[in-house]
Amino acid sequence: MSRLEKIKEHFKDLNIDSFLIKNLANIRYITGFSGSAGSVLLTKDNDYFISDFRYKTQSSKEVNENFEIIIYVQNSLLFLKDLIEKHDLKRTGFESNFMTYNDVLGLREQFKGTEFIPVDSLVEKTVMVKNEKEIADTRKAVDITDRTFTELLKFIKPGLTEREVSAQISYLQKMFGADGDSFDAIVASGERSAFPHARPTDKKISNGELLTLDFGCTVDGMKSDMTRTLAIGDISEECMNIYSIVKEAQLKALGSVKAGMNTKVIDAVARDYIKENGYGDNFGHGLGHGVGYDIHEKPALNERTEYILEVNNIITIEPGIYVEGVGGVRIEDDVIVTKEGCEILNRSSKELITL
């Protein structure tokens, strides 16, 4: 069954006759389009890709043959008017996670004869399973990220600022063939490593502290996402202990990943180990997430959400411990779910590296 067929088989249960897609990652997933402006309308028998004049040539080269391409010049809602009338659409679903309240109000005001129905994660549930090309592109992205980390170990030294390290990450990933960064790199040193999503600053890296690096790149739309924590010189016994706990928690979680497993159960494997070692209150985020055309996709691995893993899901496993005033440790790998377990894509060492 094709991806489009998998999406459309839910139309009946959702009681919709069409589905409007605005999220660019989802659009790329089902059409191949890599530009920055576009929409997709799926009906029971016809599928449309809509964009503006800037993407006329690009869409003709990228959008797959299942879609009729519509290029508009002025008001983007005009295309929807024509298609609603052409197919007599009465109940159009829309991506409730990606369209604003004002967007929906505008649609309902302009097209009073059509109901617009919020739909949650219809494409995302199909996106979770990657095809061969997407897996191959992810492998390339992870390889670039690993190579970048190897070079960073030669570059990082006390006195450099977090911002300088972040800039070097972007430079190296592009030099090694990435299309760009998959997100703004997290470079956090010393006490700032206790901030899970710290932005790089002009703080200088110093001896005796932890340094957390969380970064990734994009290859033909597919993303990588890796975290390693380093020691800069001699670090405290507590920091070394935290590192050991996080490393063991990650290894235990990786060992529990396989098709058919509940993501909540996998999260508990790492979370319970961290709790048993006295740091339960210092692990406040989920264990991981899906990664693909978006850096954060379904399935989510956390305490609240339950997904059953499938073969060829690509997910991250990234436990962490963050102690205010001391520092933090996170270790993260990208993995492909298999029938019997998982394939860990990252080759970078998880041993504590001291620079």
Give a quick precis of the structure.
The chain is of the alpha+beta class and 355 residues long. The protein contains 11 helices and 19 strands. The longest helix has 24 residues, at 132-155.
Structure description:
- The chain has 355 residues and is α+β, with helices and mostly antiparallel strands.
- It has eleven helices and 19 strands.
- The strands form six sheets. The protein has a six-stranded mixed sheet, sandwiched between helices. A three-stranded antiparallel sheet has the order 7-10-11. It has a three-stranded antiparallel sheet with strand order 8-9-12, with helices on one face.
- The radius of gyration is 23 Å and the shape is elongated.
- The mean pLDDT is 95.
Keywords:
355 residues, three-stranded antiparallel beta sheet, 35% helix, elongated
Q: How is this fold's topology laid out?
A:
Elements: H1 3-8, H2 11-14, E1 18-21, H3 24-31, E2 39-43, E3 47-52, H4 56-62, E4 68-72, H5 77-87, E5 91-95, H6 101-110, E6 115-119, H7 122-127, H8 132-155, H9 162-175, E7 180-181, E8 186-189, E9 209-215, E10 217-219, E11 222-223, E12 226-232, H10 237-256, H11 263-276, E13 288-290, E14 297-301, E15 314-317, E16 320-323, E17 327-330, E18 333-337, E19 342-344
Parallel strand pairs: 1-5, 3-4, 5-6
Antiparallel strand pairs: 1-2, 2-3, 7-10, 8-9, 9-12, 10-11, 13-14, 15-18, 16-17, 18-19
Helix pairs in contact: 8-9, 10-11
